[in-house]
Amino acid sequence: MPKKRSGGGLSATQQAAKFLGVSVLAGAVMAGIALPAAGALGLAAKGTVQGFDEIPANLKSPQLSQRTAILDSAGHKIASVYSRDRTVVDLKDISPYMQKAIVAIEDSRYYQHGAIDLKGVLRALNKNAQSGGVAQGASTLTQQLVKNYFIEEAGDDPTKVAQATQQTLGRKIRELKYAIQLEDKLGKKKILENYLNITFFGEQAYGIEAASQRYFSKHAKDLNLQESALLAGIVQSPSRYDPVNDEAEATKRRNTVLTRMAQVGDISGAEADKARKAPLGLHVSRPKNGCITASKGAAFFCKYVENVFLTDPTFGKTREARAKLWNKGGLTIRTTLEPQAQESVQTSLKEHVYKSDRVAAASTLVEPGTGKILAMGQSKPYGYGKDETEYNYSVNHDMGGSNFGFPTGSTFKPFVAAAAIEGGKPPTQPYSAPYKMNYPSPVQTCSSKPWVNDRSYTVENESESEKGPYRMKEAMAKSVNTYFVQLISDIGLCPVMKMTDGLHVVQGNGDKLPENPSIALGAIGLSPLTMASAYATFADRGMYCTPIAIESITQKVGDEQKSLQVPKSTCSRAMSEKTADTVNTLLRGVIDSGTGQQAGLSDRESAGKTGTTDERKNAWFVGYTPNLAGAVWVGSAKQNVKMVNITIGGRYNDLVYGGRVPGPIWRDAMDGALAGKDAPDFNLVDIPDDNKDKGDGKGNGHGNGNGNGGNGDNTGGAIGGLIGGTTGDNNGFPTPTFSFPDGFIQGQSNGGTRGNGNGGRG
Question: What is the mean pLDDT of the chain?
Fold first, then answer.
């Protein structure tokens, strides 16, 4: 580029710019070229060299907004998202017909003039003088490119867009000066390439590649003569000449372009005549934008990735900055989603719960030790129609989930056990665990004020046959409510709060857990992702890792790919290895001989816990192997369906509980996700068999209870009482009565294989 001469003064280009700045920019523009009458210009003419020089010297070409590709961990595309549908291509990848058509109709002397076409200016002046108005403009392609730069930089801000397009003399002068600069800097071919990539062609298509795909379902390099003429004609008025909505008007405009191409010698008259007779030949492809188009049921995961991007400071200090980067696009986001695991989750959900069912199901799989989210799906598809939802039931509210999460039932009990063991309680710790009892009081909290049972709140087990003494292993397998109430009362609430803090267990709305003994029975709403990540800590022998969904991001900047920083999983020790190993041993027993037998995996070690809440409005199974953890929730998002005498996935259920519907979903999802993968073992500890010390009579009594009443883990009685003082139907057993205050907390009922109690109302 010519610079200042060594002795000072201006180069030839700069001198020309100043001359044009004074004479053409002020005089010609004020004469009315492509502008309203002088009284409406809005800005005074900068008719001096000094005024012209006040305009910033360098125009920074904006990074064009483009599609963002979201990929799974194997590099397969999940979805494309974009603010503006654009794919930038090189000039060599644009049909020569298209290049000639746009020049012919928009700036036929493009290769003969500089940034400003003086002949065009004079022609426009004469034409406008004859018409008495603004009948013709004189903007070159270069000037139009500059104008589009201003519009692109404005983004979706309506005020900035208005400023970029306002018909004022000041804007026109600025546009012309920058056009001179671009001609000097880029050259004709690059300007044409940039123009074809930035221009709006209607139907949400920005740039020639997107337009070619939208109207003809082909690449821009493959456009023929009549197709190129049609697209070139659209640019002047995308709405007026839209071929999808007005074929006749679009055809007239196309033929005008063909005629002009013949006039300037780009094609012969015969070629023009033949092309004018051809039909438009549209082969329209509708936009496929956003997570709603995601493959393999990954729409909810896709939205989770978007929410991570918009909320994590790694991608910008403010939400506005992050949103601007997201809307600019041009990103390639490789995620943690594993194709095999995702397909397995979706297949299992589809098999067990239909989208038209009265209830929904959600499942999330997390890799222990890394925090990677390998799968995330639900039974109701992403969308806004019947049997669809935009809410992601697997995550917290701030990431697109339900307002409060879902009560977890007895799946919370392992956190209480872990807190007790970490504090020194042995897994053989016995408690009387009677069938029914008053809530122990007082219970120590993290403050100096203990929780006091000043209203004689009671809690009971599923059946009268379930009465202690019990030790922890059997109490966990059978999910004995009174045992865990006694346990949390014994150790106090503060150790449990410390444990759940280390596991990053928060309510679905993001709030900390309340200091109340009822949390032992899973009354608080949590999300499947929260539960899966917490249980992954047991699998990884006590190390908690924050969940992550993004592996890497690259951004296309010009012809180069730039790597962006992404959030990393942070791992920290939440409990000792010994504590985790002990919990793993306890929860393996739940699958081996307890309420989760229907969820057991046949080819590898697994552990987990069932949970069913008040009136069977929620049912859970959360489980894991040493190398994969997963949570499954089934219920009504509005919490208004009691899963009693209900058909789910084409199967009739007299009673739904954690081991019956969620358990098999978890089993099948894990089976597929782990197929062909290593099958490591847990580091188990020796916990003496409870029944050896009880005698045959006691042991047989419990065995019969499990067979007839079914391995129940009914906490509905306890939690139902906490809520409303209503009664529950225990399927033949005496109806429990509760006395906790109305609205105190969400109730729950965790059922077993048969005859499980419904519990109280929440």
Answer: 82
Distances (CA, A) of 762 to 150, 523, 588, 708, 717: 58, 9, 30, 27, 10
Percentage of the chain beyond pLDDT 70 is: 78
Structure tokens at 492: 């106090």
Q: How far apart are CA 732 and CA 735, in angstroms?
A: 8
- In DSSP notation, 337-405 reads --HHHHHHHHHHHHHHS-TTSSSEEEEEEE-TTT-BEEEEEESSPBSSSTT-BS--TTS-GGGT--SS-
Among 22, 239, 212, 185, CA closest to 102: 212
The Cα–Cα gap between 293 and 298 comes to 9
pLDDT at 151 exceeding the cut of 90: no
Query: What distance in Å separates the CA atoms of residue 82 and residue 404, rounded to the nearest whole number?
Result: 30
Separation between Cα atoms, residue 621 and residue 666, nearest integer Å:
7
Cβ distance 411 to 457 under 8 Å? no
**Could you tell me which residues come within 8 angstroms of residue 676 by beta carbon, excluding any fewer than 6 positions away?**
none
Token digits for 623? 């489980």
- Supply the pLDDT for residue 127: 59
Mean pLDDT of all residues in 608-613: 93
Please state, in angstroms and rounded to a whole number, the distance separating the CA atoms of residues 399 and 467.
43
**E strand or H helix at 611, and its extent?**
strand 607-612
Do the beta carbons of residue 625 and residue 606 sit within 8 Å?
Answer: yes
Q: What share of the chain is helix, strand, coil (3-state, %, to 5)?
A: 40, 15, 45
Strand-pairing partners, residue 545, are 571
CA 444 to chain centre: 41
Predicted TM-score of the model (pTM): 0.78
Tokens of 298: 């990954």
| Residue 750 neighbours by CB under 8 Å, 6+ apart | 409, 410, 479, 522, 595, 610, 611, 612, 613, 657, 658, 712, 713, 714, 715, 716, 756
Burial 200-213 (b: 16+ CB within 10 A, else e): bbbbbbbbbbbbbb
Tell me which residue of 549, 550, 446, 572 sits closest to 503, measured CA to CA. 572
**Cis ω for the linkage preceding 238 (within 30 of 0):** no
In this prediction, residues 92-99 reach a mean pLDDT of 97
Rounded CA Rg of the chain? 35
The DSSP output letter for 511 is: P
Choose the weakest-confidence range: 44-48, 151-155, 202-206, 437-441.
44-48
3-state secondary structure 564-578: ECCCCCCEEECCCHH
User: Would you say residue 744 has pLDDT above 90?
Assistant: no
Distance (Å, whole) CA 691 – CA 348 = 37
Q: Rounded to a whole number, what is the largest CA-CA distance in the chain?
A: 113
The Cβ-side half-sphere exposure at 755, using a 13 Å CA radius, reads 18
Strand partners, 459: 437
DSSP string of 222-255, one letter each residue: G--HHHHHHHHHHTT-TTTT-TTT-HHHHHHHHH
Across 25-35, b (16+ Cβ under 10 Å) vs e yields: bbebbbebbeb
Residue where the block lists tokens 């004189």: 138
Q: State the residue for tokens 């020790």.
A: 573
Secondary structure E strands in 394-439: 406-407, 436-438
Record the tokens describing residue 15, joined without a space.
């001198």
List 644's β-bridge partners, or say none.
655
Burial of 754 (0-12, 13-18, 19+ CB in 10 A): middle
Question: Distance between CA 441 and CA 457 in Å, rounded?
Answer: 10
DSSP state of 271: H
pLDDT at 47 over 80: no
H-run or E-run covering 335:
strand 331-335
In the chain, the N- to C-terminal Cα span, in Å, equals 77
